[in-house]
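Quick one, T. Sequence first:
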Amino acid sequence: LSASQIGITMGAYGAGMVAVALSAGWIMRRLPFGVVIAIGPLAGMCAALAMVATIWLPSMALAMVSFFLIGAGPILWTIGTTTLRQLVTPQRLLGRVSAILTVATFGARPLGAGLGALIGGSFGLPACLALAAVGFVIQAAIILASPAVRLKAQPDPVAEPVVEPAAAE
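Structure tokens:
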């Protein structure tokens, strides 16, 4: 691909993010809540498999589909899982739970980048893409086995316990 074709191809990532961000409300009103949660990992898996397919079928269109899906799926995943987390986590713990997830998510990125560099540098780009696809398949399998994907609707918010003030002695 030329430099401009690479830019256009990678721009499909942003287009996927924007398209789903703008349509998330519409999607969430029409699909069962668990299906919304499942779409993200499934889109990521399909994106990874499409990118692996470019090894044998080099195609700008196929790469664009991959980037679009990896932009679209995680946005819907983030909206769905953040909604779920906010509904089932007691208010007093929400900041802690969100912080742990943020540290785990962003902390894993440099490890993944390092592993990708090591695999790609040692075994080549096809091996790196294949390993990433295996990771996305495993992630999708774990999420699809989760009870969260069977939710028909958003759960009711968790009730906060009523704490009575201590009696003065």
